[in-house]
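Lecture 7 notes: from sequence to structure.

We start with a single chain of 93 residues. Read the sequence below before looking at the structure.
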Amino acid sequence: ATAIIVVKNLSDRETDVVAGKNTMAVRFGEKFSRFEYTFLVVGSYVLLAPLSSILIDDTDSGGGAALWLFLPLLSLPVAWKELKAVGFGGKDG
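Now the structure, written as tokens:
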């Protein structure tokens, strides 16, 4: 959800400057906002592995619950497309 806010702030940064809004995209610039977006999106997928390993080690659940944590990986193709456009490209949201 935070990545969505970052993209919105990135796309609105020029009008926010005129309006006097002090968003992170205005304060730290476009390059920082693109890095922040990349960090948030990649981080959400990277954290699945350690989180699932904690649940797999949990003997009470039998480890089956941890497999459900990998369902977000199905969204990876869509996330990759947006990451290339916003994080690495010139698209503003």
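The CA atoms of residues 10 and 30 lie 7 Å apart. Keep this in mind for problem set 3.
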